Description:
Elements: H1 6-31, H2 36-59, H3 65-86, E1 112-118, H4 123-126, H5 129-138, E2 143-148, H6 153-162, E3 168-171, H7 175-181, E4 188-193, E5 196-202, H8 208-216
Helix pairs in contact: 1-2, 2-3
Amino acid sequence: MDAVSPQKKFLSFIIHWYNLMNNAIETFLLNLGFSWTLAKYVPFLLALLIGWLLFRTVKKIRMNKWILFPLLALVFCLPFATYFFFYPIYQPDLQNQTYLPKTVINHPPKGTTLAVVVLPGCPYCMQTTEIMNRLTKQNKKLNIVYCLVSEDPGALQTFRKKLDRRIEIRYTKDAALWMLAAEGVFPSYLLFDNKRLKRAWHNTTFGVLALDELRAYK
């Protein structure tokens, strides 16, 4: 077995540290009742604050101005740039983009329901569970249903272990229609209100703005 280089160990340590920091900050803010949007952006503001404090500290050091000015710019920008490198702001976090499915679902869910259309074996689908667990606690009037478009008993059990008991998991009737409604993108999110489709998001357009809309949806 090849030995792991010190550079790779250091990079792994940095990634692990930032994962812990990100999860801790965002989870803490969400637990305090902050919106998804604020929980996303506050860490960046904190990074700017850290950069400013470093700037003020380094500014007191006496050195050649040709060295000092680039160093000041570096220490001010580095915390923000590093955090942004690991946790970039994507377009769905800036603009709430929805789409209109061209396919009509024959048996839409009742009530106010968010249908999460998932495909067994899809890693992005499995990553939704933690977010949906939190969302179901934030908005108890919103029913969340995971719609599996393939009858895979193992997948159903895997999702059941990770999801809150209030979240239903079902095999979809007319699976082909659900796949067409998702336009082949998994996961996709379809919001129904009294069997009428109100909003729909693909995984690539589902960000903090969509989560805040669902958090407040009545």
